[in-house]
From TrEMBL:
GO terms for cellular component: mitochondrion. Signal peptide: none annotated. This is Tumor suppressor candidate 2. Residues 1-33 are annotated as: Disordered. InterPro entries: FUS1. Residues 19-29 have a biased composition (Gly residues). Pfam families: TUSC2 (PF15000). One of its GO terms (biological process) is inflammatory response.
Length: 112
C-alpha cells in the first residue's frame, strides 16, 4: 500500500538508476539497464493528452450527444432528450496549448 501501480511495475519515467529495481544484475537484467538509461532522457512535461470529446455521424464535436424524442403520456405529447451512445468516434490525442508538468514528477511548487 502507498505505491502507485506505475511505480511498483517499474514504469515510472522519472526513476533514478538506484530506484529502478536493483541494477543490471537484478531481475530483468538488460531490460532494467535500458529502462534506467531511458529514465534520464524523460522530460517532466506533458505535451499531449487524450481528448474527452466525441465526433458524431455529422462531424459535430461535443462531450455528449442527445436526440429529441416525442413521448405521449396520458394523451399529452412531451419532448424528451435521449442520450446517444452509438456511432460516436473518440476525438483522439489533443496537443496541449501550454506544456503541463507530469503528475508523477516529484516536484514541490512554492512561491518564494
Amino acid at each position: 500500500m502507498g505505491a502507485s501501480g506505475s511505480k511498483s511495475r517499474g514504469l515510472w519515467p522519472f526513476a533514478t538508476p538506484a530506484a529502478g529495481g536493483g541494477g543490471p544484475e537484478g531481475p530483468g537484467g538488460q531490460q532494467a539497464l535500458a529502462r534506467a538509461r531511458a529514465a534520464r532522457a524523460a522530460t517532466p512535461f506533458v505535451f499531449t493528452r487524450r481528448g474527452s470529446m466525441y465526433y458524431d455521424e455529422d462531424g459535430d464535436l461535443a462531450h455528449e450527444f442527445y436526440e429529441e424524442t416525442i413521448v405521449t403520456k396520458n394523451g399529452r405529447k412531451r419532448a424528451k432528450l435521449k442520450r446517444i451512445h452509438k456511432n460516436l468516434i473518440p476525438q483522439g490525442i489533443v496537443k496541449l496549448e501550454h506544456p503541463r508538468i507530469h503528475v508523477d514528477f516529484p516536484v514541490i511548487i512554492c512561491e518564494v
